[in-house]
Amino acid sequence: MSDEALTLFLPCAAGVQDFLADEVHGLTGLAGQDLLIERGGIYARGRWRDVMRLNLHSRLAQRVLLELAHAPCESEDALYALARRVPWEDWFGTRHTFRVDVTARGSAFKSLQFAALRVKDAVADRFRERSGARPSVQTQQPDVRIHLHLDGAHASLLLDTSGEPLFKRGWRQDKGDAPLKETLAAAMLAASGWWQPARRAVAAQPLYDPCCGSGTIVIEAAQLALGLPPGGQRRFAFERLPLFKRDEWQAMKDEAEAAARPAPAAPRIFGSDVSHRMVDFAQRNAERAGVAQAVQLRGGDALQRQPPCAEPGLILMNPPYGERIAVAGKAGAGKETGWKTGQGRETFQTATLRRGDENSPGQESAHDFFEQLSQHWKTHFGGWTAWLLTPDTRLSARLRLKESRRVPLFNGPIECRLLRFELTARRPANAPGPAA
Ligand SMILES: C[S@@+](CC[C@H](N)C(=O)[O-])C[C@H]1O[C@@H](n2cnc3c(N)ncnc32)[C@H](O)[C@@H]1O
User: From which residue to which does any coiled coil extend (predicted)?
Assistant: First the structure.
C-alpha cells in the first residue's frame, strides 16, 4: 500500500495554482503528466511519502487530499454505489470516527446535504457488511474527513490527510483584527519572486513589511530563509491512519530539522506596525515559530519609519483597508480607537477606507495616508521595490504611482491584486538638472 501510486489533489486559493505546482515540483520532483494544474488546486500523482512530505512542507496548499474515486454520477443512488465500492477499510477502521464534507460546482444534485448523507450511509454499510461494525460519525474533530466534490456530472471522493487546514501552522496564537492567512502570505512571497518555490530558494534581498500586524508575512519569510518547514509544529490527520509509520515520519521530520539554517548575524527581514500591541503579538508569534533571531520587529508609523537597512530591498505588505482595519498614526483622523496594551491603553487617530464611502469625512485622511506613504517612499526608499496586496481597485491612483505588475490573488472570496511599484528616489529640489 505505502508504495502504490496515489492521486493527490491539493486545493489552494484561486490564482495560486501555478505557484503551488512549482512548490510541489520543488518538493517532490513530480512533473509533466504527474502534475496537472486546475483553477484552485493541482492534481499530483505521487506516493505515500509525497503525502507526508507535502503536508510537512507545503506553504501554499490548503490541504493534501487523496482521491479514492472519481466517476460520472448523476443520481443519489449512483453516488451511494460509487461510495460503497471504495475500499475504505484499507484506510481506516471501525474504531475511527469520520465525517463527510461536501463541495460542489455546477452540480445537478438537489440537496448537497442529502448527497453527503448517502456517502456516509455507503461508508457505514460497507464496514457493517464486512465486519459487522461501523465507524461512528463525529462532526467535531473526527479522526477521518471524507470530502465529496460534485463537479457537473462527476463526483469525487477524497480522503483528507491533513485534518486542520494547512494554513494553521501552530505558531499564530496572537492575532489582530485582519490577519492574513499564512498560505496567502506565502503566495505573496512567491508572486513577488522573493521566494522561488520550484528552486526552494529565497532572494538575498532584504524584506520589509511596514504594516506587519501579527507578523504573518515576515514570519513566513523568515521560516523560508531558515529552511524551517511550515508543518513542523502541528499534527496531521494521516498520523491517525493505520498505515502511518511513526519511524518514517520521524525520520522525515529529523531530516527537515537537520536541513535548517542558522539565523544570520544581522536580520534581513523586518517588520513594523503603528500598534505596539501588534508588534508584541508579532514578536511572540515569531518566537513560537522559531524565527525570533531572524527578524527585527519595531513599533512606528509607516509614514515616519526610515529604511531598516542600508541596502535597498523589497517592501511586501497588505495595507489597512476596510471596516475592520483602519489607517492609524500620522495620517489618521476622526474617530479615536483604543487598543489595550500590557502597559495600559494605546490610542491612535484612525480613518477607515471602504468601498462606496469615498466622500465621507475621514476618507480624506485615509487617502492622505497612501499619498503621504508614496511621498515618504520616494524620499527615503529610493531603489526599493514595493508590493502591496489590496482589494482596492483605486490604490495606484491613491498612491499616485503606476504599478509595473499586477498579480490577481484571492483573499478568501475577496478578489485582490498584488501590485508592484518601483520606487525611484525623488531628486532633491536643489539638485542640478540634466546637462543641456
Ligand atoms: C491589514 S493589517 C495587516 C495584517 C498583517 N499582514 C497580519 O498578518 O497580521 C494592517 C496593519 O496596518 C497597521 N497600520 C495602520 N496604520 C498604520 C500606519 N500608519 N503605520 C504602520 N502601520 C499601520 C495596523 O495596525 C494593522 O496591523
Answer: none
What is the Cα–Cα distance from 226 to 216, expressed in whole angstroms? 15
Q: Average per-residue pLDDT in the chain?
A: 90
What is the CATH topology of the domain spanning 6-160?
VC0802-like (3.30.2130)
Q: Is 29 exposed, middle or buried (0-12, 13-18, 19+ CB in 10 A)?
A: exposed
Place 381 in a pLDDT band, splitting at 50, 70 and 90. very high
Separation of CA 193 and ligand 1 centre (Å): 23
**Ligand 1 centroid to residue 212 C-alpha, Å:** 6
| β partners of residue 422 | 385
- Within this chain, domains 6-160 and 182-235+260-422 share the same CATH topology: no
Best residue for ligand 1 mutational test, from 180, 181, 211 (most atoms within 8 Å of Cβ): 211
Which secondary-structure segment (H or E) carries 282? helix 276-288
Where are the domains positioned within the chain? 6-160, 182-235+260-422
In short, whether 176's Cβ falls inside 6 Å of ligand 1 is yes
pLDDT at residue 342 in the model: 34
Q: How far is the CA of 403 from the centre of ligand 1 (A)?
A: 21
Q: Alpha-carbon distance 228 to 208, whole Å? A: 20
| 222, containing H or E segment | helix 216-226
CA of 222 to the centre of ligand 1 (A): 19
Class level of CATH domain 182-235+260-422 = alpha beta
What pLDDT is attached to residue 343? 36
213 lines ligand 1 (CB under 6 A): yes
396 lines ligand 1 (CB under 6 A): no
DSSP strand E in 59-121: where?
Answer: 65-72, 97-105
Q: Whose CA is nearest to atom 1 of ligand 1?
A: 320
C-alpha 317 – ligand 1 centre gap (Å): 9
C-alpha 174 – ligand 1 centre gap (Å): 14
**Rounded to an integer, what distance in angstroms lies between the CA atom of residue 13 and that of residue 410?**
6
CB atoms within 10 A of CB 250: 10
Query: Cα separation of 147 and 150, whole Å?
Result: 10
- Kindly state the average pLDDT of the residues 95-102: 97
